[in-house]
Amino acid sequence: MNFRLIISLVLGYGVIINPAHAQTTNWPEEPGKALIHQYCTGCHQLNQITQSAGYSQVGWQELISSMIDLSKSPHRDTITAYLAKHFPQNSARRATLKTGDISIDFKEWFVPTLGQRARDPMQTPDGAIWWAGQWGNLIGKIAPKTGEMTEYLLPAGAMPHSVTHDKKGNIWYTGNKNGSVGMLTPSTGEITVYNMPDPKAKDPHTAIFDNNGTMWFTLQHSNMVGRLNPATGDIQLVTMPSPHSRPYGIKLDANDTPWVACNGSNCLVKIDPHTMQLHEYKLPHANTRVRRLDFASDGMLWYVNSSRGRLGRFDPTSGDSKEWPSPSGPKSHPYAIAVLDNVVWYNESGVRPDALVRFDPKSEIFQSWAIPSGDVYAGIVRHMRTTREGNLLIHQSSSNRIILVTPQ
């Protein structure tokens, strides 16, 4: 069967140096610099260090331990000492946290495979929590009551961007790097792959099922949206009205009509579920870029204006929109969003720590919290979804954590 039950942490991590990532600025020539190039740039660019909030040596050790296991390496102390000396705690991108009357609890699960960039958790009807481990080429499952975690390896090169589920209990992923979507049958571990019918459709991104069992999905850099009929395997694709729109998040309104956020243009797009005709709505400011969106029960569409650091509301009936500045300002880069009991939740990914923000549309009051990653704070949340119990599921992809947020 194509799955594995993880019972212990991965003890090693292969590093492949990418020369483009290894080019850096003038860091001090001291012990540790070359080692950081060796161990860090195989997975991410060094701007992830230079743009961080900085940590003590203990903090750097904890953060690194969520990415790569250096516990048996003789170089760990040298690396973390260099980082602590030259990248200590700083306030360059500090979040502006708003206090208020609401309290919340964070419950964290540290997923097994290191360096996988865990993301996009969602709850299935049986209460289980699933996530996508994009860089680990896997999807995972948490049993919340016991904390047991199972990880399922995917076909080579899938690199899942997100997960969703259908009414039959199957788990679907978007193969962001090999132009596919796939279905996992949890009871058997069997994976069924559906390849895109057009070679230009390279990067399935985010998917959602409507009430008829049809899957709708975005393809960001391919500038397309797609529809899959699971009964037949038929996939239909349409290109976005504007070039370089970069369709990103996708949600359904109360009429089961899909709406898409544009991460490359100032637009929202409605998909006719019968004809797949696309209707584009331009948002007022040309520099607007929208990562994700969600709907309230009154039919209002809420979105994050990621490029301008604002929260937005769009009326699909009138076409009117209104925006509010996010607490941490124009560079806060709001990213994920979810509407829970008609209250809007989103995160500010451009600041450190990554902040979880609550906005009450009735009072227009913001409140925000620093999102923990163990004993440190390191973003970022790229997607959030609600649970049946009225909670939020978020994650910290930089530190491989899935988080349940319970408002009190």
From TrEMBL:
Keywords: Lyase, Signal. It comes from the Bacteria. Gene3D superfamilies: Cytochrome c-like domain, YVTN repeat-like/Quinoprotein amine dehydrogenase. Residues 1-22 form the signal peptide. GO terms for molecular function: electron transfer activity; heme binding; lyase activity. The keyword Lyase applies. PANTHER family: VIRGINIAMYCIN B LYASE. This is Possible streptogramin lyase, gluconolactonase family protein. It comes from Paraglaciecola polaris LMG 21857.
